[in-house]
Each structure stands twice: as structure tokens, then as C-alpha cells.
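Incident log entry.

Two folding requests arrived from the same account within the same minute. Monitoring flagged them as a possible duplicate submission, but the sequences differ. Recording both here for audit purposes.

Request one:
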Amino acid sequence: MQRILAVDDNEDILEVLQLILEDSDYEVETLSDGHLLFDKIKAHRPDLILLDIMLGNMDGRELCKDVKSRKDTHDIPIILISASHNLADRFIPGNAPNDFLAKPFDISELLKKVHTQLSAA
């Protein structure tokens, strides 16, 4: 079973993501504190990360860059999620997310993007 880590500071969104993805036969771990991201990655070794851009006092784009710049995590696909629709052009190649999903998201679009990234990995 493929493992997905969903990271968002909004517990309601995490719950919705978990329900949708588990209903589609994915194993889902959730995290509401970006400071614990690398501990969670090490413990659960996700096949994909869904990462919100606005994480309270943290920037998901910086976390994405950190994940992509580390040798032990750079191969994990990341889909950034945000209510801001114009952020896709603000990334440095090599440190960019694999995909972007705007909030509010359509369930079928979420599942399509997840499937695409997991199939490519």
C-alpha cells in the first residue's frame, strides 16, 4: 500500500484528506506541525507528501525546498496545496514541488494528481 503524508495546520483539512485518500486505498499519515516534518518522514517514509504552503509560522515552500535539497528525501514527490493560485512560478528548478493543487480542491483532481505522482515515482 502506498503511503502519503499530508501536512497542514488545519485539522479539518487533514481529516478530509485522510478520509478521501484512505477511501482510495492509500495509507495516510497526517502532520499539523511542519517543524516535525523530517521526523515524520524518517519514521514513516512516505511515497508522496501533500504539503500546505501556509503552515502557521512556517512556509511550506521552504519545507519543500529543504526536502528536495536533501539526498535522503529529494526523490519523494511533493504536491503543494494553497489557496493562493499564483505561486507555481515562484520556485527554483530542482527545489520545486512536483505538482500544485489549489484550495478549495476538487476530490477527483486531488486523486488524479496523487495517482499521477505515485505512478511516476
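Request two (distinct sequence, not a duplicate):
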Amino acid sequence: MSFIRKPKINYSGQRRNSLGLTVRDYEGGMSTLCAGCGHDSITSALVQAFFELEIEPHRVAKLSGIGCSSKTPAYFLSTAHGVNAVHGRMPAFATGANAAARDLYYIGVSGDGDSLSIGLGQFSHAMRRNLDMLYVIENNGVYGLTKGQFSASADVGSKAKKGEVNEQRPIDPVKTALAMGCGFVARSFSGDKQQLLPLLKAALKHRGFAMIDVLSPCVTFNDHEDSTKSYAHTRQFYHPAIDADFIAPREPIRAGYDEGQAVPIQLHDGSQVLLRKVAPDYDPTDRAAAFTYLQRCEQQGEIVTGLLYIESGRPTMHDINRSTATQLRDMPYEELNPGAAALAELQKRFR
């Protein structure tokens, strides 16, 4: 984590949201990542998303594991709650925190190594529980902190900086999320803030687990000619399946669309995601069709981006477990720990 404070300069004329806050109020410390790292572009989009959604920073809990990606939470929302967890174990921390204080906005920032290797089991079970959080994977195909070894998301045939060729099949977080029943699945590119920003805003307002896989090139170890996670390769094979706008509930809806060209999706809080179809045969509400479409595009060498699947109204972890309406953090100790007699009574039902 970085503890270098970013100088805060207030000048007249800065745009403020309804809370009276400027974009600067949503920033964090100075980035210690390599110059040009895609992760810093994602940070910029996150800062803008929270500012435009007018979310108070202290109402956010940001969590991460280990890796270059997991340093990102230090660079936005300096006054939010936050924790660096053990490598691959961030979803467990998020689950426990959400169980105790569900009224916060939860955002987990992870990487392809942190989520798809050591943390794959935790990542899968967070989706299975439908934990109410935004989960961002900053995907560069390498372990940047340990000198550029292939990660589990490296494509077959991709070359490392020193010439090694990856021969193992990758784990695709998007197809994994679809197979696990995730209700909000998207992919974007750190170099396309215009697409990434509305996706982040919609994901933060989605009730349940929202996963965004963001291709984020590593300029030090994986931005060369033969890498499939480089800036050049991503821009060449970039294929937007869905173009999305996010519309807040308190604003009048002015976006017009023709039947068959756009689909408005209502979220639980009244906000909308307006999906404009780029691929004429693509339906972002059909899980099986989305999976098939991804497979077809992958065979053609295309990197599909946009909001790839959305399903509103699925029960969350608290709905499934019938959690108490009183948040655990607000319950008196005597109720949280009723004693040995109450535990013995509870255990009778399992004998």
C-alpha cells in the first residue's frame, strides 16, 4: 500500500456533486505503480464513478488481496473503510464484513493471479452466495510483483517478455462467472474509460454480486508484441458486444432509442442500465446465449467487452440466509453471544 499523500488543491470553479464534494475528495494516495500501468486508469474511472454516483466515501468498504492490482484501493477514497487481506482470501473478508454491516457499498479489487489461482475457490463461493459487492479483476495475464510469470488468465500461445510460450488453457473469469450463476457479468478495457465508467456505476448499484473483468496491460512485463494482454493486441481485437449507459433514478430519462436497438434494464433502486446492442444477435439477459456468443467470438480471436449478462432480482446472501434485519454491528453483545446454554440448545437440532 502507498502512504504517500496526494496534494489536495482546491481551486475556484471545481465541479461539486450534491454532497458538496469534488473529484479530489474521492482520490487516495499517490500511485507507486509503473508509469502507464492500466490499473491507474481503472482507479481514475472508479474515482469518477463514486463522484458521479454521489456516494459518501465513508459509506464504502474497499477490499483487496495481494498483487499490483491489490494496491489499487490505496489510490481512491482515502476516507473509506479498507483492508488488504491475505493472498486470494479477500472474498472471505468481504463476506464477514457484509454480514456485519450490509449498508455499506462493498468493492473488491483483485487481479488474475489473486482471483484465478490461489483465490479461485473464494472467488467462486462469493458468486455462489451472491454476496452484495462489486468485484473488479484487473487482468494483465502475469504476476507483476514477482517478475512476470504467466498467470492463470494467460492465453495459449502468448509469449512472456523473455520468450517463453504459454501452453496451458486460461481460466476466463467472464465464462466462470456465467457458469457460477453471477447476475452481473461484464468485461472492459482499462484504455476505454467511456465504456468502463457506466459499467462501474451500474455494477455499484446492482443488488448482488457484480463482476467486471478489466483487461489492464502490464507495461513492464506484458506489453510486448507477442502478448495477448498488451495495449496493441487489445485495441486490435477489441469487440464491443454491448454499449451501456447508466441512468440515475432521480434524473429525467432523455436517452431515446428505437425498438430492437436498445434495452433498458431496471435495477432494484430505480436506476437503469440502458443497453445499446452492437451485435444484432446478442441478448444480455440470456445466460446460455451469452456463453455461446463468447465462445464463438473467442474462436475468432475477438475480445468481447461490455455488459455481457445481467439479471436483476436474484436473492442475495442475506435473503438466502434470512439474516436478521438488525445489522450485527448494531446488536448488543448479549445477543451476539448468548452463552453456552443457548449454543447447546442450538446443537440439539443437529443430533
